[in-house]
Structure formats: C-alpha cells, structure tokens
Amino acid sequence: MSERTNTQVFTEELEDILVAEDEQFPFSLVVWNDDVNTFDWVIASLIEVCGHTHQQAEQCALIIHHNGKYAVKEGEYHKLHPMWEALVERGISATIEEMADR
C-alpha cells in the first residue's frame, strides 16, 4: 500500500470511531434544581438510581443547586429512560436531552 492509501484508511477508521462514540452517548439525563427536594434526598437518589458514589452524587447536587441543572449521566436513551422514570417517581425534576455536538 502506498502512504496515501494508509493515510486514507487511518482517516476513515478514525472517523468511524468518532461517529461510534457520538452514537454511543447521544443523550444526557439532566436533573433540575427545585425548592422542594433536599440535598440529602437528591444525593441518595443519584446513588441509588444512577449508581454514583457518594462523592459524585454530592458534587452533582452542588452543581445542580448553583447552576440550576446538571447532566448527571450520559448514555443511550434506553439506558437513561429507567433512571429518568425512577428520579421522577421520587419527585425529582429531570429530563432526557439530546446532547449537542461536542
């Protein structure tokens, strides 16, 4: 193979990888700040529902409080949907949003 062909193959493989990464995590689970839920409830919910460590959940809760919202999880829609349902059932405001181009 010539050098040009190797470069083309490498470029095509790299593009395939980048597309696959974008398709793998096209959605985010966003939790919104409210005046109802306590920090402890949000932290416990993120641990139980999303599988966060206590430290991760605590950091997410602080970001949610200060920024008004935070994407607590990224992934495929079918994996995020049960988490969204569980959070909403707990009275936590959450949405699933399509991620913008990165």
Automatic annotation (TrEMBL):
Start and end residues of each Adaptor protein ClpS core domain = 24-85
Q: Which residues form the signal peptide?
A: none
- A GO term for molecular function: peptidase activity
What InterPro entries does the entry give? ClpS_core, Ribosomal_bL12_C/ClpS-like
Report keywords, A-Z.
Answer: Hydrolase, Protease
Q: Which SUPFAM superfamilies match?
A: ClpS-like (SSF54736)
- Report which superkingdom the organism of origin falls in: Bacteria
For biological process, the GO terms are: protein catabolic process; proteolysis
Indicate what this protein is called per its UniProt record.
Answer: ATP-dependent Clp protease adaptor ClpS
> What is the taxonomic lineage of the source species?
Bacteria, Pseudomonadati, Bacteroidota, Chitinophagia, Chitinophagales
